[in-house]
Amino acid sequence: MSRSDLHEMGVAELAAAIADKSTSAVEAAQHLLARARAHASLGAYLAFNEEATLAQARAADARIAAGERGPLLGVPLAHKDIFVTRDFPTTAGSKMLEGYRSPFDATVVAKLAEAGTVTLGKLNCDEFAMGGSNENSAYGVARNPWDTARVPGGSSGGSAVAVAARLAPAVTGTDTGGSIRQPASFCNVTGIKPTYGRCSRYGMVAFASSLDQAGPMARSAADCAALLSVMAGPDIDRDSTSLDHPAEDYTRLLGQPREGARAERPLQGLRIGLPREFFGAGVAADVQGPVRAALAELEKLGATLVDISLPRTELAIPVYYIIAPAEASSNLSRYDGVKFGHRAAQYDDLIDMYKKSRSEGFGPEVQRRIMIGTYVLSHGYYDAYYLKAQQIRRLIAQDFQQAFTQCDLIAGPAAPTVAWKIGDKSDDPVANYLADIFTLPASLAGLPGMSVPAGFGDSGLPVGLQLIGNYFQEAALLQTAHAFQQATDWHTKSPEGF
Ligand code: GLN
User: Fold this and answer.
1) N or C end: fewer C-beta atoms under 10 angstroms in the chain?
2) Half-sphere exposure (CA, 13 Å, Cβ side) for 23?
3) From the CA of 348, how far away is ligand 1's center (Å)?
4) Residue-range domains of the chain with CATH
5) DSSP state letter for 257
6) Is 80 a catalytic residue?
7) H, E, C per residue of 421-466
């Protein structure tokens, strides 16, 4: 038996096909590995280990043969190369970690493996997750399958490409300031960044620890819910910022109308806040259009749209680009060429070894952020920059709490434009930073957010609708996105040729 349509299936369908033995975990893994190799020019994957993949697949098939069933049992997926993995190298998209092999699996990876998923490989990303286009990867760009001359977004660019080009039914990503939501938006993928602390950061290569958060990316909200139910949960012993909040079944509200609502208007009673600042002149017309149409669809499903304001939206950019580099400069001090990572071949003394190892190992954007971070933390500047940024961060979080007195969820675009051409912004770091305007606020506040495929812009490029919830409102976000996906088919569209 051999099936050539396995890459067409989402997580739930594949799990069902594997469970009823119309295919096997081994067959599914082999099929997707072959596809990933055939589409290597997309730059989605950084590493494979076929032997390890097939061993995991055989183990899943054995569990099925023994009568076990589970929503992810035997399902192939791939991990952003920022999660450490025992069976695959981990580079975080950096030369600094070239050839690095972790002695353990990240908690998120281990939890998904326990649930019976099969790891296909590791996915390309911006170096240390710093970027929004995947062009900062030391291992080459990843290409947007909707137009291979364009970026897939970032930093989880390879993750979004793998799902969009049907090289994996689902993947993991991380989001520090938008890195799940923005590439999901650029590639017509559904992705959710949970509440800060909801998924363990243990084994996630650190960028900005007060912001970093893991999450799933897949074709549908339902598939994301299945993954997140496994990924989330406390890990207090290993991650001190992991939240002591019991694991949840995020699929529980899917397909159910909201309390008191009828099946035809499942979102009856849901108040969706539209921040004025998310719909201004800075948003491209071909993004506004699909987002507005998606909101009209949500209204048809019973939701009420309310105008709100998040007055400090613009400040999210300077605040984030002080706090994130500050934390990055501290986190990245561990790469000194001594304990692990790249070490220069030739040097004069210890200081020279540090200098050469770090100059050779880190790419230009990472070096830029280390410099900014070190500067804003230095004596005499700390109060003016870092402390001020922390104060405004608090106000941004308060603005959201104010908004949530008027609405249950917040909606807007995930990004101000569709995917841009590779190279278009690469000489201009500030242009890249500005493109993060709509994802940074929720990150700074630690709120859950997602991007849901909402249609296409001028050149047939995907547009994502962002939904933001209050703390721990992941189930409500997924329920809303699922209701939208039951009524529309944007999320089922794949790029031509894939
Ligand atoms: N684009 C943002 C940055 O460059 C966000 C990255 C992320 O979320 N990892 O920092």
Assistant:
1) N
2) 26
3) 36
4) 3-231 (3.90.1300.10)
5) P
6) yes
7) ECCCCCCCHHHHHHCCCCCHHHHHHCCCEEEEEEEECCCCCEEEEE
Q: State the average pLDDT over residues 118-131.
A: 98
DSSP 121-183: EEE--SGGG--SSSTT-TT-----TT-TTB---SSSHHHHHHHHTTS-SEEEEEESSSTTHHH
Please check the confidence at residue 1 and state whether its pLDDT lies above 70.
no
Q: What is the mean pLDDT of residues 18-30?
A: 97
Of 159, 176, 319, 439, best ligand 1 pocket probe by most atoms within 8 Å of the beta carbon? 176
Reported pTM? 0.98
Active site residue 330: no
CA of 494 to the centre of ligand 1 (A): 25
Residue in 81, 127, 130 to alter for ligand 1 test, most ligand atoms within 8 A of Cβ: 130
Mean pLDDT of 49-67: 98
Catalytic residue from among 137, 179, 185, 200: 179
Dig out the tokens for 477 from the structure: 């976000």
Ligand 1 test: best mutation among 217, 436, 439, 466, most atoms within 8 Å of CB? Answer: 436
pLDDT digits (tens, 9 = 90+) for 445-477: 999 999 999 999 989 999 999 999 999 999 999
Atom 10 of ligand 1, residue of closest alpha carbon: 130
Q: In sequence order, what are the beta bridge partners of 150?
A: 421
Burial class for 240, CB neighbours closer than 10 Å (0-12, 13-18, 19+) = exposed
Summarize pLDDT for 309-343 with one digit per residue, the tens.
Answer: 999 999 999 999 999 999 999 999 999 999 889 99
Q: Pull the structure tokens for residue 356.
A: 């050469």
